[in-house]
Amino acid sequence: MLIFELEKNSSKPLYEQLYIGMKNAIITKQIDVGTKLPSKRKLADFLNISQTTIEIAYGQLLAEGYITSKPRVGFFVEEIDTLPYVEKEQSKVTIETRITKKYQYDFHPGKIDTESFPFTLWRKYAKELFDNTSKEYLQVGEPQGEYELRFEIANYLYQSRGIICNPEQIVIGSGTEQLLPMILRLLEDSSKFALENPGYSAIPRIHLQNNAIPIPVDEDGLIVDELEKTDANIVYITPSHQFPTGAVLSAARRTQLLKWAAVKGTNRYIIEDDYDSEFRYIGKPIPALQGMDKNEKVIYMSTFTKSLMPSLRVAYFVLPSTLLTAYKQIFSDYSATVPRFDQHILANFMKDGHFAKHLNRMRKIYRKKHDKLTNTFETFYPEITITGDQAGMHVLISVPLEKTEQELKQQANELNIAVYPVSDYLLKPIKYERPTFLLGFGGIDLVDIEPAIHQLMACWGIRKK
Fold this sequence. Notes:
Layout: H1 14-27, H2 40-47, H3 51-63, E1 67-70, E2 74-77, E3 105-106, H4 119-131, H5 147-161, E4 170-173, H6 176-186, E5 193-197, H7 202-208, E6 213-218, E7 221-222, H8 224-228, E8 234-237, H9 251-262, E9 269-273, H10 289-292, E10 298-303, E11 315-318, H11 324-330, H12 340-351, H13 354-380, E12 385-387, E13 394-398, H14 405-414, E14 417-418, E15 420-421, E16 436-440, H15 446-459
Parallel strand pairs: 3-14, 5-6, 5-8, 8-9, 9-10
Antiparallel strand pairs: 1-2, 4-11, 6-7, 10-11, 12-13, 13-16, 15-16
Helix pairs in contact: 1-3, 2-3, 4-12, 5-12, 13-15
C-alpha cells in the first residue's frame, strides 16, 4: 500500500498533497511503470481521508498523463519521459509589507496639486483612443517615441521655452533616470562630469558612481568660474530653478557657460535639465540655454512630472543635430519605454490646447500657494530666511537654531510633518550657517499651508511675532 505523509492542518489541500506525493514517486521510479494503484475506496480507508480527495488526486494525475485508467480494472502507472524536475514543497517566503509613512503635512518638493488635475478631460481622450480601432498601438512604436507627441513637444518648446528643434531631435522616455544613461552613452567614455553641489542626488549615485566633480552654487546658480578650474567636459545643470536651492542661473553666467562649452577641441556639452521651468513668480520667464546656444552644445531635458503628474512617466531630451547620427547608430534596436496609448493621449491633449490651458490654471494655483507660504513666514516669522522663491514648487528656508538638520527633521516627523534637509542633496559637504530645509508647497492644500507652518515653527520652538 502507498504511504504518504499528509498534513491535515496544512494550508495546502489534502488532494494536492497526495497528488504531489504520487507524482514525485512516479517520476523518481519509486512506483514502477505498470503498477496498479489501490482503488479509491481502499486508499481512502488506508489514509483515513475521503474518497473524493482520492478521486481529485487521481483525476489530476490522469489528466497530466502520469497514470492511465482501464475501465472496470483500475488505475495504472504510465510510462513517461524523464522530467527535468521534481516538484518539492517550496519554502515559505516572508513577504515584508512596505509601509510608507503618510504625514499630515508633507512638504515634499516633488508633490503636485492632485485636486486640480483634469480627470474628466483626460478620461475623455483615453476613452476616445480606446473606443476607436487603434490596433496598431498594440505593436512596438518608434524607438524615439511617437511622432505625434514629438511634434507637439517641439511646438510647445518653441512657444514656451524659445527652443528651435524638430521632432527628429526629440527622444521620449519614461523618466530622466531612464534617459540620462542614454545620453551618457552618446558621450566619450573618457568624459568627466561636473554636477551642481547641492544638486539632484540620484544622478551620481545611479549613473556616475560618485566620480562626478561637484561645483558650488550660489544665489546666481552654478558658479561657472569654479567649473572652468576643473577638467570636466560635461556639466549637468538645472538653470531655470536650481535643485534644491531654487537659484536661477543669471544671464551673465548663462553666457559664460555657453562660451565654456563652445571652446574648440574640448568636446564639451551642457546637459540642461529644465526642472520646474513652467512655474515662475518673479519677472518674465528666462529662455532655455538650448535656445541661446549657437554651437549645438546643449542637450536639453525635461519632463511632464510637475506640469501634469509624476505617475505619467513621460520625459524627453532634445539632441543637438551633431549627435543624431551617433544616437541612431547606438540605439537603433531600442524600443520606446512609454506605452504608445499614453503617448497618444498626451499628444491629443496637447494638440487641442488643453495642456497650455492646464499650465495656465496651475500657475495661478501654485502662485497662490507660493504667496501664502512666503507671506506667512514674512508676517509671523521674519527671522526665517527664504531663498529660491522666484520659481518652481519649493523654497528653501534657513532657521536660526543650534540643532542639526537631522534633529529638527526628527522633531517635525514626530509631529507628523515631513521636511527635507538640504544636506540630503549634497555631493560634497558644505557647512551652512543655519539649518536649511526644502519646503515644497505643491502637494499641500492652500488652506493648510498657514496652519502647517505654524505647527512646524511651534515644534521647533520658534514663536510667532
